[in-house]
Give the backbone structure.
Amino acid sequence: MWTLLKSLLTKWALFKVLLRTLGSLAWLIPIALILKAIGLPMLILLAILALPIFIILAVIGLPFILVLVVGGLLIAGFFFLLSLGLAALKIAIPIMIIVWLVRWFTRDEPKPGTDTAE
């Protein structure tokens, strides 16, 4: 009887810990969906951009490894520029929102009852 109770309590405790761990990772689901929505078109874009470069490098007779290295460097450079742009947007978007809110709160509205057309 004690063995049965110990095993049930152990299973219950492990189940509770497992659910708590998976529940704490639930906030990653929206991020994964956003990355999937952005990442797949980005991968398609990279394939479209990289294919002609790979073909040209292969046609001029460079070894296949060198073609892959140059293509990898081009893709790495593209991702560097992309991450640099995203970092700039992380700084620029809050500033633009603050400026927009300040302009919105300090805008001049005509008072009711006054006619501007004369």
